[in-house]
């Protein structure tokens, strides 16, 4: 990929390293400047996540230009921890948007990018979908029973006490370990998982939005619509229309969304 940003010249990262990341099929590689703006990325990052046609459409843009607010705010906060505080973020689990437009789990690492004088001038990062990051799965062993229970019962009411007991942990210890791994509470995780499943079902079938909300554990369709829009920056019907352009978007439940 042609490097178009002068800011890239400040960062001590040789051309061969950048070329190496161009050849990795499942790793998203990116470099940001001190303001958190993208100044370089590989093909996986460009096409797999942002789906932009060429680099000029990407460079100079920041998180809020690409992601819904809920995700962008989280990513921007992490970027500043790296850029402002010099802190490295290693193998962090986070939700991101796939090339299909749905949510999925990714493992992300970000480290400070420095100039020839050692001054932080941005960050360098890599990210890949959790399914491909086999070495990361071991970190889930402590909570594996809870994760299995959530995945099998996400459409039902789930109590934290039940999850903690499944892992043979006290509730306080379970909450602490869970938030350390996922950077969100168990309830937030369950809601995101339900949303992920809703995205898949909106893309894959023609069930009504109310039915999909219920299937995914949302008893109140209006709450589901508000939560979906707040997280994805679009209503469920708008998301479905983008995934299935030919599908009729004039249903009554679509017109009633807020």
How many strand segments? 5
Percent helix range: 40-55%
- CATH homologous superfamily descriptor of the largest domain: PAS domain
What is the strand arrangement across the widest sheet? 2-1-5-4-3
What does this structure look like?
Residues 144-242 form the HTH araC/xylS-type domain. Residues 248-258 have a biased composition (Basic and acidic residues). The protein has 258 residues and is α+β, with helices and mostly antiparallel strands. The protein has two domains: 6-132, 2-Layer Sandwich (Beta-Lactamase), CATH 3.30.450.20; 136-245, Arc Repressor Mutant, subunit A (Orthogonal Bundle). Helix content is 45%, strand content 16%. The protein contains twelve helices and five strands. Helix 5 (144-153) packs across helix 6 (160-166) and helix 6 (160-166) packs across helix 7 (171-182).
Would you summarize the structure shown here?
The protein is α+β, with helices and mostly antiparallel strands. It contains 12 helices and 5 strands. A hairpin with a 4-residue loop joins strand 1 and strand 2 (38-41).
List the defining traits of the structure above.
258 residues; Beta-Lactamase; Arc Repressor Mutant, subunit A; methyltransferase activity; PAS_4; methyltransferase
List the helices and strands and how they pair.
Layout: H1 15-23, E1 28-33, E2 38-41, H2 43-50, H3 63-66, H4 69-85, E3 89-97, E4 103-114, E5 120-129, H5 144-153, H6 160-166, H7 171-182, H8 186-204, H9 209-215, H10 221-232, H11 236-243, H12 252-255
Antiparallel strand pairs: 1-2, 1-5, 3-4, 4-5
Helix pairs in contact: 5-6, 6-7
